[in-house]
Amino acid sequence: MWTFAFKRLLSGAVTIWFIATATFFAMHAVPGDPLTRDKAMSPAVRAQLEQRYGLDKPLVTQYRLFLGNMLKGDFGISFTQENRRVNDIIREHFPVSAMLGITALLIAFIGAVAAGSIAAQFRGQWPDRLLMMAVVAAISVPGFVIAAVAQLLIVQLNNRLGQPLIPVAGWGGFSHLWVPALVLGLGTMAYLSRLMRASMLEVTNSEYILAARAKGAYGWRLFWSHQLRNALLPVVTELGPAIAALTTGGFVVELIFAIPGLGRYFVQAVQQLDYTVIMGTTVFYGAFLVIMVVAVDIAYGLIDPRIRYSRGR
Amino acid sequence: MNLLNVENLQVEIGRGPNSVKAVRGVSFSLAEGEFRALVGESGSGKSITGLSLLDLLPSKSVRRADRFQLENLALPNQHHGQWRKLRGNRLAMIFQNPMTALDPTQKVGWQIAEPLCIHRGLSRRQAWQRAIELMERLAITDAEKRAHRYPFEFSGGMLQRVMIAMAIACEPQILIADEPTTALDVGVQQEVLGLLNELRESRGTAILFITHDLGVVAKIADSVSVMYAGQVVEQGPVETFFTGSTTKELHPYSKALLAAVPDLSGGKPLQGIAGQPPDLRRPPSGCGFAARCSQRMEICDQAPELFHDANGDHRCWRWHEAFQTYLSQQGQVRGAQHD
């Protein structure tokens, strides 16, 4: 098991190196550089700045310096936000994105397991049809539309009540968190619901469920001890990509709800060619995803004894 | 007194004109300690008959019976809550493929202990202890350690023992075994049969053994019911079928089945049964086997009832009194064909 985790982490490190290298050269291939501004800059000032940021050195030297600093965990200083270290930007803003993403994932996962199970239980009847219609709607309507509609509804609700019950935007406690998290998680929830439903149907029609019923198991006992655990397996494998989508894909929701997450800085950095911030956030996201995928693999082993044992050997 | 009486059991799967009339009149009884084999081709309704005894039919199926009785208890209608108290308790089932009939994510010990928690109200700890005892009784060595293992770590034979342990945990009166040896190799088959035989001898458990292996039937069954196209076409004591099959009358289908058993001495060529069983979405109005029967008569277009004689029940016009009259009227020698 631990050898397995170690191997996965090692291959993850290679992945991160590859992401870093590809991003580095792709970024430098884009015309212009962080010093290109609307305002004209005298060649002397420019040369001084280039020297200060090391942009005058050959690309390969810059790459070597970057890799060395990356191994030390230092991504340098932002070009556009003066004197702000990239590490500080990540440290301050990533927890916000992570909080939003993880809450979204929790809502999506729990909602999907419940919706999928209910739909499978009532296959072909109205609860199933209703849920599957909602799933199609949630998958096809883009996130920014749902976000805007959600805000509109909150405004209406607050107006009716005459007092702000749910904040429309901003960042603070749980009251600020749950609506954007729900909006962010909705697509994932819809997708996972379908998966859960299919998997639950398959499990329900399996021979071991028939055998469990032949023993006298029924209702909740049958659900908890036999159906749920087996039906969860394919859903859990999808959690890795889902975490990826939610923690890094929150730009739009963060923007609409005015949440100070890392996504905003990531997008800004790309627009302004802020080299250090691009590299820092990209490598950080890459590392985060690799770790999450390994964590999901390990969780999978905890649920499915077959995987756990084959890895142990 | 019989433990179980079933009269005129009918099962229809699905709804509308394309529903499958899977069981179309099955009657049998099980006495204490009786080992009854239910024989027939695939699709003859054997397994559905077995499942209907536990109310485990697929959804959207309808079961009817003139009589459906376990000792003094009339078995309740479909999906009645009372079934939950019977399943795994007084009636239990062993499935064909132990590899797929055990929950892959649950420890074997818990799977055996589960019916005891459900029906006997034992604590998990007590039930676990009982599960280990059951495993030891079924000659699973190292039971204490093995109880912690998962199904994928067991061999097929071991798993079938686990399944039997699971089924007999609450000491059921009736055990339905749906082809429990088909998925196993020959040596393991013998062990499993031995276990079942010991069970009925020591505890008086009645066993309904669903199979198409006539060799097994000849070895340990007391009585045989032959099913064809959803109906029992012939049933009686096992001797009727084997020891005396050359002198006594048998249903043409039973005869064909016996002829289809490979003879390893190489004495006679293997005889298959020509044709296909009827489509049970639209079962024939007459005798179900008529289309494939070598001794077909005009009257076979009408459905025969079960006729009784000293050897058991036979669903064939040849047992009807009128047949004798018919023979003498026709003055034919066709009767000579069925000795």
TrEMBL record, chain A:
Q: Which Pfam families match?
A: BPD_transp_1 (PF00528), BPD_transp_1_N (PF19300)
Q: Where is the ABC transmembrane type-1 domain?
A: 94-300
Signal sequence coordinates: none
Could you tell me the Gene Ontology terms of the biological process aspect for this record? transmembrane transport
Question: What InterPro entries does this protein map onto?
Answer: BPD_transp_1_N, MetI-like, MetI-like_sf
Q: Where are the transmembrane segments?
A: 94-118, 130-154, 174-192, 239-263, 283-303
Q: How does it sit in the membrane?
A: Multi-pass membrane protein
Q: What is its main location?
A: membrane
Q: Where in the cell is the protein located?
A: Cell membrane
Q: Which UniProt keywords apply?
A: Cell membrane, Membrane, Transmembrane, Transmembrane helix, Transport
GO cellular component terms, alphabetically, are: plasma membrane
Q: To which protein family does this belong?
A: Belongs to the binding-protein-dependent transport system permease family.
What protein name does the entry list?
Answer: ABC transporter permease
Organism of origin is Spongiibacter pelagi
Automatic annotation (TrEMBL), chain B:
Q: How does it sit in the membrane?
A: Peripheral membrane protein
Give the range the annotation lists for the signal sequence.
none
The cellular component terms of Gene Ontology attached to this UniProt record, alphabetical and capped at eight, are:
plasma membrane
Transmembrane segments in this chain: where? none
Reaction(s) catalysed by this chain's protein: a dipeptide(out) + ATP + H2O = a dipeptide(in) + ADP + phosphate + H(+)
Q: Name one Pfam family in it.
A: oligo_HPY
Q: Which residues fall in a coiled-coil region?
A: none
Q: Spell out the protein name for this chain.
A: ABC-type dipeptide transporter
- Recorded source organism is Spongiibacter pelagi
User: Species lineage, top-down?
Assistant: Bacteria, Pseudomonadati, Pseudomonadota, Gammaproteobacteria, Cellvibrionales
